UniProtKB/TrEMBL annotation:
Gene Ontology molecular function: any one: catalytic activity
CC per GO annotation: cytoplasm
Gene Ontology terms: biological process: amino acid activation for nonribosomal peptide biosynthetic process; lipid biosynthetic process; secondary metabolite biosynthetic process
Residue intervals of the Condensation domain: 3-426
Protein name: Condensation domain-containing protein
PANTHER family (alphabetical): FATTY ACID SYNTHASE (PTHR45527:SF1), NONRIBOSOMAL PEPTIDE SYNTHETASE (PTHR45527)
InterPro entries: CAT-like_dom_sf, Condensation_dom
SUPFAM superfamilies: CoA-dependent acyltransferases
Pfam annotation, one family: Condensation
Length: 445
């Protein structure tokens, strides 16, 4: 075993988990339904090939003084694909619940493994493949890369090594990024980024739960909804993006900010967005490289949607440019009075994500299966896949604050803002665009 430092992002995640290690807040899972039979032993062999290439997949995390360190195993340990069973002729809902149980099984950080893979042989034949990781060693991009490499390993002719990932160099490991980032924190560029956040967040409001209260700050009480974005809304979103020369995601963020201001009764909106902190050097490195950074927007009634959209686009660019400042440090820069609060700066996060997954694995057609989760890390965590193939929203929400109908209304309000903005070439103020919105649950009681 080799000792290695954790990055600042890993450390803040590890500390967060220590509050209640039995929760499954940071358990990530991808579930794929394949249109044929994939033997577990064949998948196991491909898995060993991939794990041997990537230190993160052979990492455990152990306490060390007031913090923790990573231990890297030079060799891939005994890896087993778990054979799971499902009811005869299961429904997709039953498979989703089975996948959730697999995802939420405890990980033992000091002993590992922090990667688990399971399969379910189904009639047809079909195969359900479950790939789970702890967020300390993998993020969404890691899972995408992992599945791509598994596919190459499964598709290689018998007895031949799979092709190396196209254009990728050796995976230095997340610990190499941790060392780089520790050095980067002493640079003028990092200090400039800190100054940016201090100025951008000066006087920002401390967030409150929907309706001004009622939030429990319990992170284990949540549900998820997977919702297709209506075709008309998707067209309007892309039309607005083209007209204003902004990304479709910036349009969605602006629309959500307008709704957020109405639902919270606070025009000074601070939303979180997840950004990948990988530099070019680490672009194909497996590990945890996600930072949540704030985007602050003026969504007051006199603001025009075009101005809100421009600010959202600029805010996203700022988020990327200054992404190396860890969230906990950003909270400190935002001013006193936020320590000891479960959600000290943002209670709502809106991010882009790949919700589709690969369309093939091991020569078989693949389709991603929606997996219900019981975590509620924020009031609302909205992930948007705005690819032309699948314009989809995945909404994780705190069930102490919102019900399913509330989330549907929240998304419908966003779509109403998109419609009003697309139909408004004169650029009315937000007061006109949001006049007919439903508002938060308390307003409809």
């Amino acid at each position: 075993m080799t000792r290695a430092p954790l990055s600042a992002l890993q450390t803040q995640l590890w500390l967060s988990e220590q509050a209640d290690p039995e929760l499954a807040l940071y358990h990530e899972l991808t579930a794929l339904l394949l249109d044929g039979d994939l033997p577990a032993d064949r998948l196991e062999g491909a898995l060993r090939t991939v794990v041997a290439r990537h230190p993160a997949l052979r990492t455990v995390v152990v306490p060390d003084g007031d913090g923790a360190v990573a231990l890297l195993d030079a060799e891939a340990g005994p890896l087993r694909v778990t054979r799971l069973t499902a009811p005869a002729r299961p429904t997709e809902k039953q498979l989703g619940l089975l996948a959730r149980e697999f995802a939420e099984r405890p990980y033992r950080l000091p002993t590992g493994p922090l990667l688990r893979v399971g399969t379910v042989a189904l009639p047809g034949p079909r195969t359900l493949v479950l790939v789970g990781t702890h967020h300390l060693v993998a993020d969404g991009r890691t899972l995408d890369l992992l599945l791509a490499e598994l596919d190459r390993a499964l598709s290689a002719p018998a007895g031949e090594a799979p092709a190396e990932p196209g254009g990728a160099g050796a995976d230095e490991g997340a610990h190499a990024y941790a060392r780089w980032h520790a050095e980067h924190r002493s640079t003028e560029a990092f200090r400039d980024a800190e100054r940016h956040w201090a100025e951008a967040l000066a006087g920002a409001p401390t967030p409150v739960a929907l309706g001004g209260g009622g939030g429990t700050d319990r992170l284990d009480r949540g549900e998820t909804l997977r919702l297709p974005l209506a075709a008309r809304s998707a067209r309007r979103l892309r039309s607005l993006a083209a007209a204003h020369r902004r990304s479709p995601f910036a349009v969605l963020l602006a629309a959500f900010a307008a709704v957020h201001a109405v639902w919270h009764g606070e025009p000074d909106v601070v939303l979180g967005t997840a950004v990948d902190v990988r530099t070019r050097r680490f672009r194909d490195t497996f590990g945890h490289f996600v930072n949540v950074v704030p985007v602050r927007l003026d969504a007051g009634p006199d603001t025009r949607f075009a101005d809100l959209l421009a600010a959202a686009g600029d805010g996203l660019l700022d988020a990327v440019e200054h992404r190396q400042v860890p969230f906990e440090r950003i909270v400190g820069l935002a001013g006193p009075g936020r320590r000891g609060v479960a959600r000290p700066l943002v209670r709502t996060v809106v991010s882009e994500a790949n919700l589709t997954g690969p369309d093939r694995l091991g020569g078989l057609c693949a389709r991603r299966l929606a997996v219900p989760r019981t975590r509620g890390r924020y009031d609302v965590l909205l992930q948007a896949d705005l690819s032309h193939a699948a314009e989809t929203l995945l909404v994780e929400y705190d069930t102490a604050l919102l019900g399913r109908d509330d989330v549907l209304r929240l998304v419908a309000d966003c779509e109403d803002v998109l419609r009003a903005a697309a139909d408004d070439p004169a650029g009315r103020r937000l007061a006109g665009l949001t006049a007919g919105l439903a508002g938060p649950p308390a307003d409809r009681a």
